[in-house]
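Record passed on here:
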Amino acid sequence: MSRFTQLISSLRTRKSLLILAALLLVINIFRVTINHFHQKQEAVLEQTAVLEQYRITTRKLVEMRGRVAWLNKQKKELDSYLFTGKSEEKIVSDMQIMLQEQVTKTGLAVESLRPIRRIEKAKDKDIDYGEVTIKIRLSGTLNQFVDFLAQLYKSKSLYQVESLTLKPYKNGLKIFFDVKGYYKITV
């Protein structure tokens, strides 16, 4: 502590105080300049990061456009397999007629072919897609039924067999199954 007091007492001269003030001013100017440099450097780094993110996003944009085009093509292809019509009742009627035609082509006898009133519509209100289950009861031979299934899956319509029961009956089979058909309502 005594050295500090000696230093202060020796600096009491005007010249020494001016030198000390000038030294402190130079140090302060240096500190402000360094802080300003660091702020500018951080700003440049932030702008570089934003620019790099922009470049990555624009690169992904080209990829996303390609993916959107591919998805639109897939949607059109899927829509070609769906039943279309202006109302659900018309679509269900068309499904029944088509199934009836395929059954008669194969030689099976139709005992019952009716929709289950569980018409399910897509959850999104903007999209008019849905599905309907049709209960079918047939009689015939196993070969006729296999031919019917082959025609069903060769058709340009999307079906899904949900349940199937085959029971022997006299000279053939009793066939019970549910078919789910998918549709799209058009305006």
Remarks:
- The chain has a mean pLDDT of 85.
- The longest strand covers residues 172-185.
